[in-house]
Amino acid sequence: MAKYAHGLARALTDGGAQVYEQSRVTRIVREGAGWSVRTAQGAVHAREVVVCCGGYIERLYPKLASAILPIATYVMVTEPLGDRMTTALETQAAIYDTRFAFDYYRPLADSRLLWGGRISIRDRGAADVARLLYQDMLKVYPQLAGTRVDYAWSGMMSYGRHKMPQLGRLPEGLWYGMGFGGHGVAPTTLSGEVLARAILGERADLDRFSQWGLPTTGGHAGLLAAQLTYWYYELRDWMRQ
The FAD dependent oxidoreductase domain covers which part of the protein (predicted)? Predict the structure, then answer.
């Protein structure tokens, strides 16, 4: 994903766009025929604005924030395993299992093991993520006991109540693209192309998403319901093993 993100940034800058990092947006305000996107460091003025904050939207734009559930998932990367890797895996392919609460993992080029899994309404710190995923790894590959975890992190995804990607334009003219949790990089990239074409006037593909709309996810009650649902399926997975 890092290489992909860097590639997108490079394509943007090669095309003449400016990328502002470490510029948290605090407000989006209608200004004449366009918009003012405000940060602590200054403002950007644009004719069109697309909100693609996903699980990090918080209270930036309540009309959009109320339509998604911010859900965390966790990833860790082990130390280089060298020959120990073959005691667990003899493939270079990515793997995931068939449970609802599944693990997903793959060997990296430097013999590290990247391991991901779990979903939660809690955006945990690195130490907690490492501890939880290390335990999950040992349930599958106990022979890797004692392996050091070098990196761990969590990230927030966004889910709509209908679990479909949310693409469209609000009546006041603000475009949005969110709700990609569980859909992966390829559909998310395609959605960006759909939005770009719509901004240029080709709305046929975008209009197909209007049937799902932006139903509310229920705020804190919705988050609690999502967590309880995950725990239920996690328990069901355990009972079937």
Answer: 2-197
In one-letter notation, the amino acid at residue 216 is T
Virtual torsion, Cα 219, 66, 123, 98, nearest 10 deg: 90
Residues of the chain with CATH 3.30.9.10: 71-158
**Fold of domain 30-68+160-228:** FAD/NAD(P)-binding domain (3.50.50)
Cα(51)–Cα(28) distance, rounded to whole angstroms? Answer: 9
Note whether 181 and 158 are within 8 A (CB): yes
Q: Residue 166 is encoded by which pair of tokens?
A: 């949310």
**What are the C-alpha distances in Å from 100 to residues 13, 155, 156, 236?**
40, 19, 19, 9
Give the per-residue pLDDT at 150: 98
Question: What's the pLDDT at 147?
Answer: 97
What is the value of pTM for the model shown? 0.86
Residues of the chain with CATH 3.50.50.60: 30-68+160-228
Q: What is the pLDDT of residues 214-231, one digit of tens each?
A: 999 998 898 888 889 888
At residue 19, φ and ψ (nearest 5 deg) are -110, 125
Residue linked to tokens 């604005």? 49
The DSSP secondary-structure symbol of 33 reads T
Q: Is 71-158 in CATH node 3.40.190.10?
A: no
On the CB side of 189, how many CA atoms lie within 13 Å of its CA? 8
